[in-house]
Specification:
The structure is a homotetramer of 252-residue chains. Helices cover 45% and strands 23% of the residues of chain A. Chain A has 252 residues and is of the alpha+beta class. Chain A folds into 2 domains: 4-131, Nucleotide cyclase, GGDEF domain (Alpha-Beta Plaits, 2-Layer Sandwich); 137-251, Alpha-Beta Plaits. Chain A is globular, with a radius of gyration of 19 Å. Chains A, B, C, D: Keywords: GTP-binding, Hydrolase, Nucleotide-binding.
């Protein structure tokens, strides 16, 4: 059984800030958002976690092995370097979707995302060190078969993007509804999914569902570890096996 | 009539690089990608252009007023600071989709995105200074009505994300197919579209189409200027008018 | 005759901020300072100017060709991305030291560097476009003869650093006192000086003075242009000529 | 007794790279250097270490508690994100100067700093976990008495900088020669010194020596811990005590 610790990072009162006293330049907002994402990737990645940009003002992270003190330090480090602060909600569950639900609730209970008086919440349940096992996190790394040959080198880049995007939209919805998994586009033709303990049949099934709905062909490598970093790297190696052997689903 | 100059930025041979000699750590790839995006946002934004992250390994930018020399300097600046290089293809057309088609072709003619010997292409057509007008770029800035109240403060963040994402997927496809426009998610509940010369009816129509298909309610501010920056800022102010007056479509 | 426009960038009320409510983590302060420096380097460098880190909370920049509006935009861009704001003072004079004096006074007149109510001053004199010439900026790029062979590859790195540092300390003082020039260490064994219209004799003289005082042997390339960027790049090429020909002073 | 683990970070073959095939734009070099410093600050700081920019192409870091694997990961992370690679030499000794000597030698033995074939050395002695104690690192944090009132708010910024710089030059030399300590300017009017086990008399003595030589008045807070981060934060709090009580030397 997996046991995923999920942390939701939410920028405090961000929407109002972006238009106060009048709309801020988009280039600065984009720079702020992408750098905050890069910094959180490093702050959490250096502690073996994974960060997904999601909507940028709300980022979903997998934080097995990262305790409350480390969360407080990450929160402080953001406040020391940015004009905005972040709230952190944490949840733990065999189902990543349930864990994120708890993490979200932990923040929502503190007030609205657009409540100016709600700042730097740090709340929720952490996975205790004694409850951790070597199988706590399962990560699946999907990519599109021959995306370069079929799309990037052939089509208008936006039409390539539409194919990739529709593939992602189908996959993220299917994996959420059928398999309690959280799937994130991570650039190029890559999607990383945080999953409960799924087997080969479920992944085969998801690949077929996406193919039927939007005609995009996927393959997937799956890894398992006590941290997101370990599971994710194992998944990448498994995906290389797919590439080498022409298979659709490989477990590390 | 609009006349949009679009530049496609493509990282050279990026896919193979990410797995050579073996898969690189995801946290480093994410950091590299998001910082390259932030840097291009600044390099292009300081020259009044707009940069969209798109797939991160391929980024679409609007570059009216940025000439060949400035493109060469941006290309050199990336090579001086990153372990990867970028190719730049440029196109100009009243239709942003056609302009991007030309920009993509300019790169594709130089070789595959995964051809190790193809490096730092700089090719395509630039809008000459004498042909520029004050109406060359039309930008539409969409957001979701009361996203915080209806989604962010109520749902599991992933379910909020699914709503936003499905709204975006429907909008980007509709605007591409019906109105030759390029629409990009830019974080939160915001989508920025680069458009030809569209009127209020077309935007009203797009908002209704998205509502019918995925039940997400949008509003939009529209701006026009000789640069992306000018058009985009006007669009933001128009969107504020929507917010203040409860309207769906406003032109600056 | 040169005519250098110098802008002093001063972080507002920074000292108190670093210890309020209690001392902030040094790693965050260092990250904030070095990134602000990198961002200003880019914001000013993309407009052909040069930025020197100086004391990090006070940075000296050469801004010929960068007008008041561009200064306001740079100031706004910092405020949009950092937890601190900056004041900008500007001065113009044939003597870089006098220009910096005016720039400093423009800020000092607005209040103390540690006055919490003094924020985002933008004040001083700008070089008007009609007064600009192709000779306005003179830059000298010094380095240490065979620093790698004599120091880096031989000594404890701190002892190498002491040699470089004492050479810099002697040079910056001599150039300030004798030649109204502002000299900045820029890493490695490199010093860049912003100078009035000096000739070969003055540079030969400075090199000898440093050699006598601290036994560090320098060479220098000198360039001249209407912008810092142009003069600095010419100086680098002249320094390459020194390297190739074994000479001490070269003008581009 | 202290037991400091020092790591020297040296960019491989950097000098030649900066001028190949011809001199690279200074703004890009400065951006590269300062961001590499910021990234190392975070990579090492997240593991409780301290990073000093020194000459930027050679950076001195205090790495107690950071083992060989973490060093390898930091080295890999730099290679994944920059156009340059770094070598790491490590040394351990009660005297920080001796430890840095060993760290430097570990790199020098692998070849010259300008040897194109020498890449990513990782060599030297690490402090084993079992040998670590709570007193291994001693950090002293100096600043200048009333620097804002006496200098920043009164003088031309370059003349302020000369005072601070001459104070630093005197202090770093004295502490190296008399007390085997490594002192680094960290911005503003602050100097951080990595020391062996010194007492109040030695610091009083250093403050007097600097005052005699260059008339700059310093005060200092001193901290001790098993990591640089812990010792440095304790030193900052001790320095606050100096500020509050008007004393010259305080131990945490």
């Amino acid at each position: 059984m997996t046991n995923t610790q999920v942390t939701l990072v939410q920028i405090d009162n961000y929407g109002p800030w972006t238009v106060t006293p009048e709309p801020r330049r988009e280039v600065d907002l984009q720079t702020l958002q992408s750098r905050l994402y890069a910094d959180l990737s490093q702050l959490i990645g250096n502690r073996e976690g994974y960060t997904f940009f999601t909507r940028f003002d709300n980022m979903v992270t997998v934080t097995n092995g990262i305790d409350r003190d480390a969360h407080a330090l990450i929160q402080e480090s953001v406040a020391n370097r940015y004009p905005v602060t972040v709230s952190l909600g944490v949840g733990v569950d065999p189902s990543p979707a349930v864990a994120l639900g708890e993490a979200t609730a932990a923040i929502q209970e503190g007030g609205s995302a657009q409540d100016a008086s709600r700042q730097e919440i740090l709340s929720g349940e952490f996975l205790s060190e004694s409850d951790r096992t070597d199988d706590d996190v399962q990560i699946a790394h999907f990519d599109v078969n021959d995306a370069t040959g079929k799309y990037t080198d052939q089509l208008n880049e936006f039409d390539t993007f539409i194919h990739i995007e529709q593939g992602y939209a189908a996959l993220m919805r299917y994996m959420r509804e059928q398999h309690d998994s959280l799937s994130f586009f991570v650039g190029g033709d890559n999607v990383i999914a945080v999953c409960p303990s799924l087997g080969e049949a479920e992944y085969q099934d998801a690949i077929e569902a996406v193919h039927e709905r939007v005609e995009v062909e996927l393959k997937v490598g799956v890894g398992r570890h006590r941290t997101a970093q370990g599971a994710g790297m194992a998944a990448k190696h498994a995906l290389e096996t797919c590439r080498d052997d022409g298979t659709d689903v490989e477990f590390a």
